[in-house]
Structure formats: C-alpha cells, structure tokens
Amino acid sequence: MEKNTSCFFSNSSPNLVITCFVAFITIILVRFLYVIYRTGKPLNKRTPQQTLSTLIVLGSGGHTAEMINLLLVLQKDRFTPRFYIAAATDNMSLQKARVFENSLADSVLCNGPGTCIPLCVIAFIFKVVGIRWSSIFYVESIARVKRLSLSGLLLYKLQIADQFFVQWPQLQRKYPRAHYVGCLM
C-alpha cells in the first residue's frame, strides 16, 4: 500500500487562491464605491475652525495668475500650511507662489493645468486605499465660458473632485454637480 504524502491544501489550493483573489477584488471594489459615494460630501470630523493643509497646483501662464488671485480671496489661516507644485520647467510659477507666501495635504486646490490630473488621481487613489483622505477642490478657469477644459471634464466625469466650481452660470446649468461661484477675479 502506498501512502498519500501530498499536502492537505494541494487539492484545494486553486480554489483557495481564486477565493482570496475574488475577496481582494471585492474589498477594493467596495472601497472604490464608498469613496465615489462620499466624494463631494463634507467630512464630519472637521470643525469650521479647523485648518486644512492644502496642496496647490500651479500651471504656466494664466493658470498661475488665476490661482494667485483665487488665493488672495481665501481665508489664509483656514488653508494652512500650503504646499505648491508646478512643472519642473515652470520656475516663474513657483517664484510667484514664494512671493505670495513670503517665504501630504488635507486638500488639493487646482484650476485647470494638465499637471493637476495626476495629483488629483493620486489623492483619489490615496482615498480608495485608505492612506489619506484629501479633499479635492477644482475651480474651472474663468476663460472657460461654454464648456469645461479637458482637465475639468476629466475630474467632473470621473467624479474625482469633491467640490467643482465654475465661474459662469451657463456652465453650472450644463454641469449640474458644479457649483456656480461667480467671477472670482
């Protein structure tokens, strides 16, 4: 008589691997759906007086000027500390940010440069994975009167931005989840 020396799990190993894989995918999918559901809803744990560390995405040209003007109307003490990101070749935007300031974030504030998309996606992935919950605020450029920019359209359609602001009423009518805030400049 020959003894069976195979491992107990050898026959069930493929089933166990498939079950673990399905469970893992299910957990990720549930977390993803939860983040989509919660995106745009206020976080209950924050008080109105609590500060938010803020990541500000600067783009070349008019985007930086618009962002600096937007920062001028924000409550500086509410959105602190502030961290700035610009393209490696965009020294002028960082210099303008240094002048404004005189000297990982709870929120990301951006207004349309293409460089904001990867950062917003990373912040969104951090939410899904549970690393950090950063609110994403997108303000569409005042130059966009009839339709959203590509960056704005991506963030709007993918529901990545927690708050999506437009500066023209016809954009708010066309994109109902957007908040019309009027001209900010």
Can you walk me through this structure?
It is a single chain. This protein is α/β, with parallel strands linked by helices. The chain has 2 domains: 8-38; 52-180, Rossmann fold. It has 6 helices and 6 strands, in the order αβαβαβαβαβαβ. The protein has a 6-stranded parallel beta sheet. It is globular and about 65 Å long.
Number of helix segments? Answer: 6
The CATH superfamily of the largest domain is known as Glycogen Phosphorylase B
Number of domains: 2
Q: For the terminal residues, how far apart are their CA atoms?
A: 89 Å
Query: Radius of gyration in whole Å, from Cα?
Result: 22 Å
Reading off the top of the CATH hierarchy, the class of the largest domain is best stated as Alpha Beta
Instruction: Walk across the major sheet and give the strand order.
Output: 2-1-3-4-5-6
CATH architecture of the largest domain: 3-Layer(aba) Sandwich
Number of strands: 6
Q: What are the secondary-structure elements, in order, as H or E?
A: HEHEHEHEHEHE
Unreliable residue stretches: none
Main location: endoplasmic reticulum
Subcellular location: Endoplasmic reticulum membrane
GO cellular component, one term: UDP-N-acetylglucosamine transferase complex
Protein name: UDP-N-acetylglucosamine transferase subunit ALG14
